Amino acid sequence: MKRKRLSIPLQLEACCRPHRQRRWLWVLAVGLVTLLLIWFMSRSPDQSSPQPTMPTAAAQMDGPPWQAGSSEGRFTVTLYADLECPFCRAYFPQIKRWVRDNTDVTLHWHHLPLAAHEPAASAEARLAECAAESAGHTAFWQAIEWVYANTRGDGQGLPDGLRYPGLTPAVEQCLASERPDAVIRAQAEQAMRSGVNATPTVRLHDRQTAQSILLQGPIEGDLLLSAMDMLAAGEADTTPDAPIPEMPADDVGDIPGSPQS
Questions:
Q1: Under a CB-based contact definition with an 8 Å cutoff, are residues 255 and 87 in contact?
Q2: Residues in contact with 261: Cβ distance below 8 Å, sequence separation at least 6, in sequence order
Q3: How far apart are CA 10 and CA 121, in angstroms?
Q4: Is 26 left (phi over 0), alpha (psi -120 to 50) or beta?
Q5: What is residue 245's predicted lDDT score, i.e. its pLDDT?
Q6: Where would you find the membrane-spanning parts of this chain (predicted)?
Q7: In angstroms, rounded to a whole number, what is the distance separating the alpha carbons of residues 254 and 146?
Q8: C-alpha distances in angstroms, 78 versus 28, 62, 101, 200, 204?
Q9: What's the mean per-residue pLDDT of the chain?
Q10: Inter-CA distances, 251 with 30, 32, 87, 248, Å
Q11: What is the pTM of this model?
C-alpha cells in the first residue's frame, strides 16, 4: 500500500510535465509573434504613426518683432522708426549694413508712426506687417526697403497709383483686416511709455546682462560699439529716469517728432 501511495504523485508528475512544457512553449510562441508584429508595425508607415513633415510657412514666419541679423547675437538693436521719416529713411541702410557686419547683433524693428506723418505712416506700416504675416521676416525687410525707396516722405506717402509688387491675395486679405493695426498701435504705445517720442531712436540691449540703453538720433556704428562696451562693462546709466543720450545737434538735425521740432 505504501508503495502504491508513493507511486501516485510520481505518476501525476510524469503525467503533468508535458502539459507544462507545452504551455511554456505556447507562451513563448505568442511572445515571439507579438514582438514580430510590433517590429513589423514600427517599420510599416500608417496613418496613425506621426510622419516627419517639412516646416510650414507659418512656423518659419514666427511674428513681430521682425528681425534681421544673428538671432543668437548677444546684443539686440531695436530701431524705433517711422516710414515717412526722412531721417529714418537715410539711417535705415546704414544700421542694417552695420548689423550685417557685426555677427553678435540682432536688429528688431519697432513701429512709431508720428502724428505729423499720418495717415501715410501707418498705412505703410500696415503694408510691411501684412507682407511679413504672409511671408515672414525677409518679406518684412523687403517691404520696408521698398517703401523707403518709393515714398515721398514727410507724410506725403507713396505716389498715387503705385502698387506694391508683392501684393498677393494673402497680403490683401491682411490689409482688409484689423490685425496689422493692433500690432502697430501696441508698439507705438509701448514706445511712448518707454519715453521714446522721436525717430529714429535706438534701444541697445545686452542679453547677457539684461541691461538696455536708449540712444536718440541716427547713431553711428562706432558709437554703438562704444555703447555695447559700456553695457558689457556695466558702465552705462540704464536707470529708468536716465536721460536718453543724443547725438550732437549737427549730426541729428531736425528730427521729426522731437521736442525741438
A1: yes
A2: 254, 255
A3: 102
A4: alpha
A5: 56
A6: 24-42
A7: 24
A8: 67, 17, 16, 10, 7
A9: 79
A10: 84, 81, 11, 5
A11: 0.70
Residues 57 and 235: their CA atoms lie apart, in Å, by 42
Based on the structure, what is the number of domains in the chain? 1
**Helix (H) or strand (E) segment spanning residue 202:** strand 201-206
115 located within any domain: yes
Check: CB of residue 194 under 8 Å from CB of residue 214.
Answer: yes
**Within-domain flag for 191:** yes
Please give the pLDDT value at position 31: 63
The amino acid that residue 77 corresponds to is V
Secondary structure (3-state) at 203 = strand
Q: In the chain, what percentage of residues exceed pLDDT 70?
A: 67
CATH number of the domain encompassing residue 187: 3.40.30.10
Contact call for residues 77 and 203 (beta carbons, < 8 A): yes
Q: Which residue has the higher pLDDT, 251 or 21?
A: 21
- Could you read off the pLDDT of 222-244 as tens digits, one per residue? 999 999 999 999 876 665 555 55
Element (H, E) at 212: strand 211-216
